Amino acid sequence: MLADYAEHDATGLAALVENGQTSAEELLDAALSKVEQLDPALNAVVLVQEGAARDAIRRGLPDGPFRGVPFLLKDLGCEAVDFPSHNGSRLFANTSYPVDSAIWDRIRATGIVAFGRTTAPEGGVGPATESAVYGGPTRNPWDLSRTPGGSSGGAGAAVAAGIVAAAHGSDGGGSVRIPASSCGLFGFKATRARLPDGPYVGEGWAGMAIDGFLTRSVRDAAAFHDACAGADLGAPYWAPPLGAGHLAAIQRPPRRLRVALCDTMLDGRPIHEDCRAAVHDAARLLDDLGHQVEPARPYTDITGMMRAWTDIVACGTALSIRAKCAARGHPLEPGEVEDLALGAIDHAATLSGADYLAAVGKIHAFGRELAAFFQPWDILLTATLAEPPAKIGRFAHTERDFVHFRTGPGMVFDYSPFCAAFNASGQPAASVPLVWNDEGLPLGIHLAARFGADEELMSLCAELEAARPWAHRRPSIAL
Questions:
Q1: Which of 282, 370, 386, 464 lies at a C-alpha separation of 20 to 30 Å from 133?
Q2: Which residue in 89, 101, 131, 151 is the catalytic one?
Q3: Is 189 designated active site?
């Protein structure tokens, strides 16, 4: 078994396989050993399919950039015939799929060896991963009393702990970037429709949701996005085409950029002092690299956007539960979904079709407001979260008031006030692990760029990684 397995990123592991220094079988053995060793404390890996992984190796792996590298799929979306899913819910437990999704086809073509799924909150809603279907919360490798984030929290915990070097995630309101921030990883949300959604959906949450990846390095994220980019057959709309690609972009620094520095929430309210200090630390680094950094923040209807986001997601949650009940032929039974999902159904029942369309219209209007802000700016710099990673239980799905859970004082949008704005606008955004506080907790730095400027943003992230490397930072549980 490879002794230094967890020290490599996915690109590095693939190189070892390519050079004959290890094999896909040995790497899978190492990953499964890590699951056995670490997951009892983390509760991050579920539905392990060792047989499917070994069958894939025996059949012969595609000759892609990650040939032979162990990999995990989020237990939400990324539908795959060989990988059933709980979708974070007792109602949807052990769902199987008749055909593979387009995103899974493209991920598989990179040569990865998928062997299971990672935990997610029910419905992908919330900045913590504490779904009842898994029998307990998923915990943060940096501090087991804290959440690794959500909704791709299991992916974040698994990568940070060294179980895998990279994992699939998805992001409809920060669900890649929140775990990246909480777990000291790199998380990149691409421009709307950059990655395929079909054939199971045409768009997620009115176009706000997109697949993504949790990685330890920028180069891994760049390679995954290059491999998976592009519309699938019948997509309702496409992202602006890429240039030479993300990997080509990170081979050189970006042009010197105009960076707007916002050290508050987008509505001007203060954030935790550790997070504010992290933003200013990042600003100094950007300035040292020659970028022009000046204080500025967008004056947008952030409150209206948050309420519209809440309405859209409540309707989406209610629709999925209703469709499941209709397919099986009987209504929801007590205990099949958690209280927050019941609250989403309650809230959706108060909304008409016209209300839903008005919410989508508000999201579109907000996107135009943010686009106008970016006319003189290339990048908006903020914290990823307004606080350090939250304690387990703070965002448990025991709350039935769905609107309060999202928008109430001290609740989700106060904790994560930045990420969802760029799901609404569709712009690319990334969480970069530049800072750890005095408690040893990672604090992500959030960078957002103009619509379609994915390659330039990825290049900037690579420049920051080169200036202040982070891969050597590992939680004690992983050592």
A1: 386
A2: 151
A3: no
